[in-house]
Amino acid sequence: MDKIALTAAALYAIVLLRAGGTFAVGWLTGAGARRSRLAGRISSAKFLRAERAIQRWGAPVVAVSFLTVGFQTAANFLAGTLRMPLPRYLPALFVGGAAWALIYATAGIGALEVLGRLFAEQTALGIAAVAVLLLALCGTVVYRRRRAARSPGEAAAEEA
């Protein structure tokens, strides 16, 4: 249990720094945009209404974003850009970050222990498992790159 607690504490510190830094960069970006040529566009009634909604209701979105893959950075950046007040943002950061750290600490340590046992008891099977994981990862990367390289017309024709 000490391994999980230590890993979760380290991951929690990392996520607080990373997500808080992303929020800060978003805040600075939003401040810069408000002083640029974009100031006219981002002061429209529609944008201001969206900004007020994020400021008021964005905290649950930020907290839940930590349970997703790939959305947490965008949620934290947008919360900063749209000036979510710190009294609303910080509790969402602390709760969502804790959930993220606990999930990754328990699942991560569990996966490493399973792989460690597999390598210790059946080395060939362990190597095969890692090879399959690497091939799946490489296949996913190649698939996404090919899909992104296609023109929009080709993608629409294949889907139809």
The number of helical elements comes to: 6
DSSP summary, beta strand count: 0
Structural class: mainly alpha
Radius of gyration: 21 Å
Question: Which range does the strand content fall in?
Answer: under 5%
Describe this structure in words.
This protein has 160 residues and is mainly α. The protein is 84% helix and 0% strand. Helix 2 (45-65) packs parallel to helix 4. The longest helix has 36 residues, at 86-121. The chain is flat and about 65 Å long. The model has no long low-confidence stretch (mean pLDDT 85).
Descriptors for this entry?
160 residues, 6 helices, 0% strand
Outline of the structure:
Helices cover 84% and strands 0% of the residues. With 160 residues, the chain is an all-alpha fold. The relative contact order is 0.11.
Write the topology of this structure.
Blueprint: H1 2-34, H2 45-65, H3 72-81, H4 86-121, H5 123-149, H6 152-159
Helix pairs in contact: 1-3, 1-4, 2-3, 2-4, 4-5
